[in-house]
Amino acid sequence: MLGCQSGFQGLVLNEPPKVVGTHCMIYRQILATKMLPQELQEVMRSILSSVNFVKASTLNSRLFSQLCNKLDAPNNALLFHPEVRWLLTGKVLKCVFELRDELKMLFNQKARPQFEALFSDKSELQKLTYLVDIFAILNELNLSLQGPNATCLDLSEKI
Q1: Angle at 36 between CA 33 and CA 41, to 5 degrees
Q2: For each of the chain's 159 residues, which pLDDT tens digit applies?
Q3: pTM
Q4: Using CA atoms in the order 96, 100, 104, 107, what is the torsion angle rounded to 10 degrees?
């Protein structure tokens, strides 16, 4: 974040020759999530677009909330997933997994077969479950990497 040519890191590298610069430890984790297998990336893209379909329209959000209240679901709202809030992905996936039956019903009512298939097909649900587990572990790791008095040695040991 400080720049290797003109920023602080560049100035320090000019003085002692054995100084080593490193990327932010947390940012490395998001780079690792970008390297998921293609079929998991497709499932993730479909799930996030289905969530954004519900959240983009106030009518769809309201209908989904009423449906969840009627069925006594654990939550009655989905989290909106902007691309810049990558730490939120794990929470979004967990919420989608918990509300998968309600989402399936909503997409059935809205005649959205491409989204309904995500929650009907057993292999797609298995991929969703796998993604939920992966991102739960990554979120836990990312939270443990934050905080005061963390050294590069401690962080690399956790990773």
Answers
A1: 105
A2: 455 555 666 666 666 666 666 656 666 666 666 788 889 888 888 888 888 888 777 777 777 777 777 777 777 666 655 554 566 778 888 888 888 888 888 887 777 777 888 888 899 899 999 998 988 888 888 778 777 777 777 777 777
A3: 0.70
A4: -10
